[in-house]
Structure formats: C-alpha cells, structure tokens
Automatic annotation (TrEMBL), chain A:
Belongs to the binding-protein-dependent transport system permease family. LivHM subfamily. It comes from Alloyangia pacifica. It comes from the Bacteria. This is Amino acid/amide ABC transporter membrane protein 1, HAAT family. It is a multi-pass membrane protein. The chain crosses the membrane at residues 23-45, 52-71, 77-99, 108-129, 164-182, 203-229, 249-271, 283-303. One of its GO terms (biological process) is amino acid transport. CDD domains: TM_PBP1_LivH_like. GO terms for cellular component: plasma membrane. Its main location: membrane. One of its GO terms (molecular function) is transmembrane transporter activity. Keywords: Amino-acid transport, Cell membrane, Membrane, Transmembrane, Transmembrane helix, Transport.
Automatic annotation (TrEMBL), chain B:
The chain crosses the membrane at residues 20-40, 52-69, 76-98, 104-123, 130-148, 184-203, 234-255, 261-281, 288-308, 320-341. GO terms for cellular component: plasma membrane. Pfam families: BPD_transp_2. Signal peptide: none annotated. It is found in: Cell membrane. This is Amino acid/amide ABC transporter membrane protein 2, HAAT family (TC 3.A.1.4.-). The keyword Cell membrane applies. Keywords: Cell membrane, Membrane, Transmembrane, Transmembrane helix. InterPro entries: ABC_transp_permease (IPR001851), LivM-like (IPR043428).
Length: 317, 358
C-alpha cells in the first residue's frame, strides 16, 4: 500500500519521462484555460468586489454566439467582431439592469445576483442556440490544427498546434492586460476603484463606466477562453463546469492577484492531471479531477488564508 | 385593522420577548398550521402532494439548515447538497443494516452522520473567511459526491450505483418506498419538519443563537466579549448539517424514492441557497416563503402555456423556466435584498399602523 502511494508513481514517472511530459503538457493547457477564466473573475473582483459566478457561462455564451453567427453564413472574423459587440451589449445590460440597483449591497447578494445572471443566460442560450454540442470554427479562424511530434529521450510527445496557439494567445492576453492595468489611465482607475470605492468616486472616477468596461474585458477574455476550449472539446453547456475549476484557482492564487490567477491555474492544471494519472486512476478509481483542485486549495488555505498571492488580511480592533 | 395591537400590554420582560408578542401573529400561525395539518391533506391531489406540498416542506427544511449556518452564523456554504447526500446515504445504510429500525428514528439518526461530516469540513472556517470559505465548502461538495459514486459500500454494491428506497413499515402502514401513499409520507414529513422548525426557532433565540449572531455580525468583537468562536462556528456547522442531513434523508426517502450521486450535485446546493437568500437570511419564516416561490414557480410556469393553449415543447418550457427563475432571482434581490421575510415584516408594520402612514 505504502509502496503504491509513495514509490510506484515516481518509478512510473522516471520509467516513461516522455509520457510524464505529455501529461504535464495536457495539464498545462487546461491550466491555461482555468487561469483565463480565473482572470475574468479577478478582474471583476478587483474593481467591484463582486464575485462573478457568471464568468463560466459567459465563456459558453460567447463561444455559442460565435459559432451561431458563423453558422448563419457570416465570415469568421466578422463573426468575432459581432460577438465582441454582443459581449459589449451584455456588459452594458448587466451593469444597467442588475448591478446599478444593487450598488452597496452585501457581497453575498451581489454573488447571488451573478448566479441569477448565470441561470438566465443558460436558459436564454439554450432557447436561442439549442443544447446540443457544436464544433468550434477552428480552421475558419486560421488556427492551425496539425500537431507537432517531438521525440525526447527516444519517446513520443505530441503537441497539438491549436493548444500551442492557445498558450501563446493566453500569454499575450495576460501581458496586454497587465500593461493595461498598470500603464493606462483606465487601468489605474480600475485599480483605484478596487482599493476604495468612495475615494475613487470622489476623485471623479465613474463607477458605471468602469464597471461596463471591466465586464466587457471579462467578456473578451470569455471569448478567447471559449475559442481555445471549444477547439479542444466542442462548444456546449458542459463547458460551464470548467468555471467551477476556476474557483480553486482563485483560492490558491488569491482573489485579488492576476499573477496568482495565472500561477494558480497552471499549478492546478498540472497537479490535478499528475494526481489523476499516477494516483487517482490506479488507487482511487479515477475521476479525481472533480475534487482534487478544491482539496489542494483547501489545504493551501489552511496555511495561507488569503491564498498564495492575495492581499494579506489584516484585522484590527 | 385586523392587525391592530392596541390594548395588548406587555408588563414584564418575559412577555415582551415572547415568541408571539402580538396576538394576531399567533392566530395567523394557527391558521397556517390548520391548513398544513388538516385542509391540505384532505383536499390535495396526488399531483399536489408530489410536486408542491412535500417538496416545499423538504426544501424549506434544507434551507433552514443552511440558514442557520449562513444567515445566523454568517458562514457562507456552497456544499449543502453534499450534506443532504450524507444524510440520505446514512439513512439508507441504517435501514438496510438494521431493517427493524423505525424509519423516522433512522431519518433523525442519519442527521448525526452529516453533522459529523459537517463539523469536519467546518474546521477550516476557523481560519478561512468569506468567499474563501465558500469555495472551501465546494471541496466538500465535489469530494463527497465523488465518494458517493466510488464507495460501493454506501450503496450496497448494487449494479446501478444508485440507492433505491425499500418498503418501510411503521405501525402497520408503509411510510417509504414504492408502496407508501403520498398522504402518509406528507404527514411524516410534516411531523419531522415541524419538530425541526421548533428546534431551530428555540436554538436561534437562545444563548447559542445569540453567540452565532454575534459571530456573524463581527467575529472579532464577538471574541472580545468572550464568545468562544471555535465553539460558536463549529456548533453552527453541526446544527446546520444535522438539519440539512435530515432534510436530505427526507428528500430521498419521502419524496424521490431513489437517488443517484449526481442528484446531490451543485445545482441542488444553489437551489437551496436561492431559497435561503430569496426567503431572507437570518429568518426561519423566510425559508418557507422562499421554498414556496422556488418550488412553486416552475410548476406554475409549466401549466401556463397549456392553460393558454400555446404550442410550446416541454424542452422549451424547461429552458424558459430556467431563464425566468434566473431573472426573478435578480428581480427579488433588487426589490428587497433582505428577502421575502423582510417584505412580510414591512407589510406587517404597515398593517399594524394602518390607516395611518407612520
């Protein structure tokens, strides 16, 4: 038993390093996607203290809109532009209809409101687009679909080009986002709102504009995530469950930290794959991916209650 | 006019703090209880029992358990459904291991198992707060549902992987299983729910309840005035999980009749959270109002297109339902963030001073 837990998995890893690399690569790619969803959460949380549960369904909604528009005969890139327009309309209407009347309410109420938005979008999306699985328009968007075959140590490592594209695009998106938040006026305004609502309002930052902006950026991130994940697994409402995976990522990284979201996402993506392959399947009957991330995050939180990169919680009396 | 309180004088602290300081409240409750105990059972159809009465009571009980944790002790939990599952599976094991056991006793005992699990998952709450804790309870949610699926002993290694409620007898009548009649099940649920509600009302009004409320309002201040936070939080987890576990056992044994692990998945948790929040956090009455809304709404919405003669497919009705429920949640949060119970409190205030505006 102890051998199975502590020795055998590592022996397996060393025996087949190419397989280990393959597992890590798969984990890295799904980790990137978790990180992207978590990024949407963090952005909204930082600027408004709203725990946006709807980020997951926004991913589905954006991907479905894109595929649906293309199916109507609109060229791929114009569909992307139109989808962005739809996400903008969505951001404006969420701000107008839901958030504005709820400004200043306790966190849990706003959180519930985002779950309400989630349900609404699920019903709405299913009525418009139907519930069946759809194929993402990968080739039409010019994403390469071949795969790269490497042979480290005489083994075999297959990297799909669409995954590589996803990693590169996600990286670019994160850099762009960090630059936007750190270097532009708008970015500073977003961070100011996150620090202190009232102070930010009193120096003339418009809460409404920033909220629309932030939800729109979250919508853009959702579209990118939707394209990347849809290219791997098709577009359907099952995608929504990956939104839950973003939650432990957030806990691990800390709710306020963009770097935390990225590192947490990658860590969880890789560790859960490793655990599933080397411990979960042989010892525990598999399918451990559903809970591993949460338990890992829970253990980390016991030692660091604000996550790895979150703002330290200081309590004064 | 009907709610005039003039002439009802309170001469002692005790009478001022009584459960019903206003006589009309007690009368109103008696009327409602009369409906629940006599009128509904006599008039309700099989359909009404199965789609409205029984589920409303069970959901209200589950929400009440969650409300103790979230509304009274201030610890947000997203893992309610998993604790319901623990109650249901514990009850299943109890009745299959000890077939002679009285089913109601088994249901009440099964709550203790979920209380134990609840305390174990509540321990992190001593260090983790707010949304971090909410996500931590998701660990319980996903881990336990996985366990229900993988641990064969829990469902007696049967091939389907689901638990099937056997026929259970009590005093010569079937109370659970395929042969039990709805009216008997309704009364069993009603008895248990009434018992639990009385328990919850008294707990929340007593020392324990006050320490929970202090913890919720400001934990540091509560600690300063000498409340043991660990005890307060863990008892909240224990009592809450107990009530939720009993609700889970009723949910499967008195209503669903069978359960697969994914029945206790996260949508159920959210459903119960909706009930608790729309009903009103920190209120017992709210759970019932919320349950009536959340359980009753889809039933009403399902009958509307038929009544109007609209040709809508059942899948469409389903989707419309989800959409409308989502929109209504937002709507109710906007008109009254403190829930339906607060709405009722405001109406009651108005009734008492009517016809004067202030």
């Amino acid at each position: 038993m102890l051998n199975d837990i502590f020795i055998q998995p590592f022996a397996d890893m060393f025996a087949a390093p190419d397989f280990l690399l393959q597992v890590l690569w798969e984990g890295l790619v799904s980790g990137i996607l978790y990180a992207l969803i978590a990024l949407g959460f963090v952005l909204i949380f930082r600027s408004s203290r709203i725990f946006n549960f709807a980020q997951g369904i926004m991913v589905v909604f954006a991907a479905l809109t894109l595929v649906g528009l293309h199916a109507m005969g609109i060229p791929a890139w114009i569909s992307v532009a139109l989808t962005l327009a739809v996400m903008f309309v969505l951001a404006v209407s969420i701000e107008r209809v839901v958030l504005r009347p709820l400004v200043g309410q306790p966190d849990i109420i706003l959180f519930m409101a985002t779950i309400g938005i989630t349900l609404f979008l699920i019903g709405f999306g299913e009525i418009i687009f139907g519930g069946e699985n759809k194929v993402m328009i990968t080739e039409e968007l010019g994403i390469p679909t071949d795969s790269v075959v490497l042979e480290p140590w005489g083994g075999l490592l297959i990297l799909e080009q669409k995954d590589i594209t996803a990693v590169v695009v996600a990286g670019l998106l994160v850099v762009a986002l960090l630059l936007f938040l750190g270097k532009t006026r708008m970015g500073r305004a977003i961070r100011a709102l996150g620090d202190d609502h009232q102070a930010a309002l009193s120096v003339g930052i418009s809460l409404q504009t920033i909220w629309v902006l932030v939800w729109f950026i979250a919508g853009i991130i959702a579209l990118v995530t939707g394209i990347a994940w849809g290219a791997r697994a098709g577009v359907s409402f099952a995608l929504e469950v990956i939104a839950y995976k973003a939650l432990p990522v957030l806990m691990l990284g800390g709710l306020e930290s963009i770097t935390g979201a990225i590192i947490g996402g990658l860590m969880i993506g890789m560790l859960e794959k490793l655990f599933e392959i080397y411990w979960g399947q042989p010892l525990m009957g598999g399918n451990t991916e559903t809970w591993f991330a949460f338990v890992l995050a829970l253990i980390v939180l016991l030692f660091r209650p604000q996550g790895l990169f979150g703002e330290r919680i200081i309590e004064r009396v | 006019m009907l709610y005039r309180t003039a002439g009802q004088f309170k001469t002692s602290y005790k009478s001022d703090m009584a459960l019903f300081p206003v006589r009309q409240d007690a009368v109103l409750l008696m009327v409602i209880l009369g409906f629940a105990w006599v009128v509904f059972p006599l008039t309700a159809s099989e359909f009404a029992f199965q789609t409205l009465l029984i589920p409303i009571l069970i959901y209200a009980l589950a929400a009440q358990g969650l409300n103790i944790l979230t509304g009274y002790a201030g610890q947000l939990s997203l893992g309610t459904a998993a604790f319901m599952g623990v109650g249901a599976y514990a009850c299943y094991k109890l009745v299959t291991l000890f077939p002679w056991m009285n089913p109601v006793v088994a249901i009440l005992l099964s709550g203790f198992f979920s209380a134990g699990v609840g305390v174990a998952f509540g321990i992190p709450s001593l260090r983790i707060k707010g949304f971090y804790l909410a996500i931590a309870t998701l660990a319980a949610q996903f881990f336990l549902v996985w366990l229900f699926e993988k641990w064969g002993w829990l469902y007696n290694y049967n091939a389907s992987g689901a638990i099937q409620v056997p026929n259970l007898e009590m005093f010569g009548t079937y109370v659970a299983g395929p042969q039990a009649s709805s009216i008997v099940q309704y009364y069993v649920v009603l008895v248990v729910v009434t018992l639990m509600t009385v328990l919850c009302i008294n707990l929340t009004r007593g020392t324990l309840g006050r320490s929970w409320k202090a913890t919720r309002d400001m934990d540091i201040a509560a600690e300063l005035i000498g409340i043991n936070l660990m005890r307060s939080k863990l008892t909240a987890f224990a009592v809450s999980s107990y009530v939720v576990g009993v609700a889970g056992a009723l949910f499967v044994f008195m209503w669903r009749g069978a359960a697969e692990p994914n029945l206790f998945d996260i949508p159920l948790s959210f459903r119960i959270l909706f009930i608790a929040i729309i009903g009103g956090l920190g209120s017992i009455l709210g759970n019932y109002l919320g349950a009536i809304l959340i359980v009753g709404l889809p039933v009403v919405l399902g009958t509307v297109p038929q009544a109007l003669g609209l040709p809508i497919s059942s899948a469409m009705v389903e989707h419309l339902n989800i959409m409308i429920v989502g929109a209504l949640i937002v709507f109710f949060l906007i008109i009254e963030p403190h829930g339906l119970a607060r709405l009722w409190a405001l109406i009651r205030e108005k009734l008492i001073i009517w016809p004067f505006p202030h």
